[in-house]
Amino acid sequence: MDKYLERLKKGALKLYALEKEVPAPEAIRIRRAFIEGETGVQLPMLGSFTMDPSSAVTRNIENMVGAVQVPVGVAGPLRVKGEHADGSFWVPLATTEGALVASVNRGCGAITRAGGADVRILRNGMTRAPVFSTRDILHARAVKEYVDANRDALAAAAAETTSHGELTGAMTFVTGTTVHVRLEFDTKDAMGMNMVTIASERIADLIEEKTGARLVALSGNLCTDKKPAAVNGILGRGKTVVAGVFLPDALVSEVFKTDARTIAEVNYRKNLLGSARAGSLGFNAHAANVIAGIFIACGQDAAHVVEGSGAFTTVEAQEGGVYVAVTLPALQLGTVGGGTGLGTQRECLSLLGVAGGGTPPGANARKFAEIAGAAVLAGELSLLGALGAGHLARAHKALGRGRKG
């Protein structure tokens, strides 16, 4: 190890190049020792992990020095009545927030006792939006007309780059001499950003060739990826999922110690009016909590919680009970690629019965999306119930979040 540390200190060897000279486990150990020496901080716990380092450094991480552990709990069983997910599921949630799993677990119990949550996927499409510069507005209009009239040619160009993805739509947005082309793809069981980016590059090349427009950037922020944006709430991105359940009055009273009218009022004044007053892009209680927990546990790109949290929670007091629903316009997830191949994350996906590619292709990702939508519903329902009953602070104190020390 010493000779490598010496070379690193002298700059004769770069941190990122260690795997070219030694196997991944040794490269990680050397790199960690170098950082310990440079900072004076010992990192023994970072060096204790079970994932396959060779796979991680090849697919998921650069300059790896170890791994961070996040506790994983399960909530359930959660009864889901979807087109792809139909059954009872134990939902893995990775979090360090005390009370979260307990809250989702209570919501799962209420949904299951009510007979299950109905869940449907309304749209399915991952997007990328390259941006082009044109000479004038006449040229910009010509680019739009080319895109509108040549969808088959654009799809054929995309197909040259992947056997798994499929172009399903293309929308143009003209702003003076700037043209954004929002491309949408069916990425089957993959979340698909890498696939979509490569296919979009080929399409952009074709648009440049045929129209004379100049590609400025492969992503022009109308995608919109990992940033809060109204366009994703309107048009959707990834999976657009809706989940709902009717809870009888007696069940609301028994489980949540409140009533339908109170839950409806909390949702109206908190999730709807409060969010509107704040200028929020999502009108919900804490959808991001559940999405983040599932994403981290199941090897998803955690930054996509930004879009996923733009959910809308609706509550309607109906005769004999209350109907609660969540709509998630932009839930981006997959069961292959990214972090889904790491050992612990794959186990969590297996727990849900969605690890790997589905039959037919795309079936596992759709099943996963339906389970995630139902889990968000469970989390929303439980928090609304806790707020209505005045139990929120009490639960956090009991489960550790409010402790000092």
Task: Describe the structure using short key phrases.
alpha+beta, 3-hydroxy-3-methylglutaryl-coenzyme A Reductase, Chain A, domain 2, 44% helix, 405 residues, single chain, Alpha-Beta Plaits, 10-stranded mixed beta sheet
Question: How does this structure look, described?
Answer:
This protein is α+β, with helices and mostly antiparallel strands. Strands 1, 2, 3, 4, 5, 6, 7, 8, 9 and 10 form a ten-stranded mixed beta sheet that branches. The chain is built from 15 helices and ten strands. The protein has three domains: 2-59, no CATH class; 72-124 and 240-398, 3-hydroxy-3-methylglutaryl-coenzyme A Reductase, Chain A, domain 2 (Alpha-Beta Complex), CATH 3.90.770; 130-217, Alpha-Beta Plaits (2-Layer Sandwich). Helix 1 (2-10) packs across helix 2, helix 4 packs across helix 14 (363-389) and helix 11 crosses helix 14 (363-389).
Task: Write a brief structural summary.
With 405 residues, the protein is an alpha+beta fold. It has helices at 2-10, 24-39, 53-59, 100-113, 137-149, 151-159, 193-211, 230-235, 249-256, 260-278, 287-297, 305-308, 343-351, 363-389, 392-398; strands spanning 72-82, 86-94, 117-128, 131-133, 166-175, 178-186, 214-217, 238-248, 312-318, 321-331.
Tell me the CATH architecture of the largest domain. Answer: Alpha-Beta Complex
- Classified in CATH, the superfamily of the largest domain is 3-hydroxy-3-methylglutaryl-coenzyme A Reductase, Chain A, domain 2
Structural class: alpha+beta
> What gyration radius follows from the Cα positions, in whole Å?
24 Å
Low-confidence stretches: none
| Main sheet specs | 10 strands, mixed
**Total individual domains:** 3
User: Averaging pLDDT over every residue, what do you get?
Assistant: 95
Distance between the termini: 40 Å
Total number of strands: 10
Helix content: 40-55%
Q: Kindly provide the name of the CATH class of the largest domain.
A: Alpha Beta
Strand content: 15-25%
The CATH topology of the largest domain comes to 3-hydroxy-3-methylglutaryl-coenzyme A Reductase, Chain A, domain 2
Question: Number of helical runs?
Answer: 15
- Give the overall shape, derived from the CA principal axes: globular
Q: Note the run of SSEs as H and E.
A: HHHEEHEEHHEEHEHEHHHHEEHHH
